[in-house]
Design goal:
single chain; about 280 residues; alpha/beta; 5-stranded parallel beta sheet; 8 helices; 9 strands
Length: about 280
């Protein structure tokens, strides 16, 4: 069972309503600014990211998912930049982008609407509503943190092969998932550096654990993590759980590997990337 807090009522609601096994999700991209503010900003990334986590969680619970991304009028360049940035952030492409008849694209009314907090979306009346809080970037002495152009209108730079973690766009994904979706996120240089460090350490550990005999995910960890995902998409709690698992001496390496690999189906952090590539 998947439950989210409907922003309109403040109550947890089950989506989709039982016994249906198809979740219809509509994600609303915030309007892109005009004038000087013409880029795809961090909030434009966080809203479809939460839609992606919702879809991954639903699939983990055995549901089929149809997602429509409703966008403002975008120029071809902006639409292409958005698609590329979503791809490098591991956001699965929606079934339809920019649909003018979302109900037809979804096959019926939406079960859930994912919108930017504080926005008035006239055609987001059906289903439960998830409001995603804003994202702020704090300038550093070197300027506003902008890893590889992710927060600008252009295609993100490719990672430097000599220092791949320095431009790892999934560090941005980890940073944006580190707080509940209704809590504002502040992007700073130190916060991005810490996210890169965490990914680097977890990937190295997963690669090491993969060399040991496999062991099943402990049942209590599986229940705890699935309950967190299913209860209002509490990804932050799952990230905390993984940090604890990494430090536990009572778990065999094979169980740690299977735990990280299984939960990464929702987290989308490519935690098994370095398996077989240890130096």
């Amino acid at each position: 069972m998947l439950r989210i807090t409907d922003t309109r009522t403040g109550h947890l609601v089950e989506i989709p309503a039982a016994p249906r096994r198809l979740l219809r999700s509509r994600v609303h991209l915030p309007a892109v600014g005009e004038g000087a503010d013409t880029g795809i900003g961090p909030l434009h990334l966080r809203v479809p990211l939460i839609g992606d986590v919702l879809a991954r969680t639903a699939e983990l619970n055995g549901l089929q998912v149809v997602t429509v991304l409703t966008t403002p009028e975008l120029t071809p360049d902006r639409a292409g930049a958005l698609a590329r940035v979503m791809a490098v952030l591991g956001i699965h492409p929606p079934a339809v982008v920019g649909a003018h008849r979302p109900d037809a694209a979804l096959g019926g009314p939406a079960d859930v609407q994912v919108v930017a907090g504080g926005t008035d979306v006239d055609d987001a009346r059906d289903g439960a509503r998830i409001e995603v809080a804003g994202v702020a970037a704090v300038p550093s002495p070197e300027g506003v943190p902008d890893p590889g152009g992710l927060f600008g209108p252009d295609l993100p730079d490719l990672p430097d092969p000599e220092e791949p973690e320095a431009a790892d766009p999934l560090a941005v994904r980890l940073l944006l998932l580190g707080l509940p979706y209704g809590t504002p996120v502040t992007v700073t240089g130190p916060a991005l550096a810490e996210a890169r460090r965490t990914l680097r350490e977890w990937r190295r550990s997963v690669a090491d654990w993969a060399q040991e005999p496999s062991r099943p995910v402990p049942a209590d960890l599986l229940r705890q993590a699935h309950a967190a995902f299913a209860e209002d998409l509490d990804v932050a709690a799952v990230l905390g759980l993984l940090a604890e698992v990494a430090e536990r001496s009572d778990l065999p390496p094979g169980a740690k590997f299977e735990t990280f690999a299984h939960l990464d189906r929702v987290l989308g952090l490519d935690l098994a990337r370095d398996v077989g590539h240890q130096r």
